[in-house]
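Hi all, long-time lurker, first post. I run a small reading group and we've been trying to get comfortable going from sequence to structure in the token notation. Rather than ask abstract questions, I figured I'd post a concrete chain and ask someone more experienced to write out its structure so we can walk through it together at our next meeting. Sequence below, copied exactly:
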Amino acid sequence: MAKKLSIRQKLIIITVILIIYPMVVIGYTGYKNYAKAIKEKVIQYSWQSVNELSDLLMERTLKLNTFAQEMLYDDNIYVFDKQLKLQVCKDILSEYTFKEDFERYLKSILHSKSELKAVFFHFTANGKTYGVNKNFQAYNPPDLLIEDIYNSAKEQKGKPIWYFHEEYNNSIGIYLIKMVYDINSLEEIGVLAYKIDEGYLFDSFKDFAISKKQNISIYNDDYIKLFAFDSFSLASTPVDIKKMLNNNKQGIEEVFINHDTLYIIYKDVTPIDWKITVTISSNIFLEDVKKTAKKIAILCTLTLPLWMVVIYIMYFDIVKPTKILINTMKRVEDGEIGATVQIKRQDELGYVFDSFNNMSIEISNLINSVYKKQIALKDAQIKALQAQINPHFLYNTLETISWKAKLADLDEISEMIEAFAFIIDASLNRGNEREIPLFKEIEYIDNYAFLIQKRFGDRISIIKEIDSDTLDCIIPMLSIQPFIENAVYHGLENKKGGGHIYLKSGIQGYRLLMEVMDDGIGMSEEKLQLIKKYLDEDVDIEKEVQSNTHIGMINVHRRIRLMYGKEYGIDLSSHRGKGTCVTVILPFKK
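-- Answer (accepted) --
Happy to help. Here is the structure in token form:
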């Protein structure tokens, strides 16, 4: 058996619960809700950043696209193309002069556009490339780059396109290229290529990342990273951006990497199909919240000693005096009549102590004035009771007679006495059993049937139809045998020629049904209704009912209801001249 907790232990447990509950339940719930609100706000700010960056990048790329389209209306390129075709077979001096003049023209373009790092033109007529860079020096890209740019531009047939090339320093060169045609003859002139200054496109993006603790990246339509600025270091585990974004136009993805939850907000930049991603870390934007939660937990922990002091104060003020009262009550239980609590208080406990003292003194007075005066009378009564012959003496006497009959070879008499003694033993209930298995009740019935057979011979027979599944069912002791006895003495004894008693058992849902039916003389309708009335009403049957038969039946019915509830009991039916049937309804349990 588990040891009961003392009041002091219960106080400690309650105090711990009062501290742990706010920390775990309220604190945790508050932290989760606050963290959720912060996350939603940070994501909202990040969406705002994505939209602003997208608009900014779209504005700048459209500006460059517009500039590239305006070059179609610049006659200089057409003039230089005609000069080149006229001096294809001329001398080196003419070619040098052409190169100087054309690069001077390219420098003027570069000088007017701070957004460009370099510009070059590849003429189809002579297959040569002329270009200048930001320092206004000659710029000659690699032949492979020229060839790839030429092929890419030719596929677009004059439409400006973006081209990306990996530079020697692992950076990505961004080019805006277009094929130029003669506006009159539509003859191919060559490829014009602008190398874009990344600073013009992306430098202002850093302000967003620094101020809002975001990582910003820009990818082209092939998911090549064009720009990246990290305000915080990411986990070493790589993230497959292409697989994650899955060609969606915009959205948000949640990634859990190395004990950190990353939220990646992305959006396409139209019409160039670049993609901007803003990455935020929950460990960073919840850093202050976690610090605050730790401080609250520490403060709650620091209050534990204060609560322990409160517990000990309550212990010495309430629990200790209560223990003194309990010890005094135990002294009274052990026989120390008149013991009192020697504590004077003016509060509720003082009232309890005074009441206990008054009760203890009053009990002492009652014992001295009443109990002792009646001891002699009780002793006399006990001696008188001891002298009476009781049922136990009757049972022991029957055992002795049975033994004597066996010695005299009177086996039939011995068997009858043993059967009768078995029934008497069941009536005594020396084991104080309230419930027994059905098979044991059947044993009592079999012994009773043996005695009936000895008395009535073949005039009365008991036929049993017992379902084997019911033999182990638990029923109230002697709840069936009385109805067998009623059937014999009130149904069949006075019937000419005798009759039969049928005992059946069965299971119906959650109920055990026992049926005792005879083909005796039955009873009148008035008598049947009167018994049913007493079965349904709580009346004093000793005064109202004269027949012991009815009293026994009603007692069994009420005993079953007291033990199992009003849905159980007996059901009675009878017809004059046809017999009586008693159905005992019990709960099915083993």
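A couple of things your group might point at:
The chain has four domains: 74-200, 201-286, 321-379, 433-587.
Confidence is low (pLDDT under 50) at residues 375-393.
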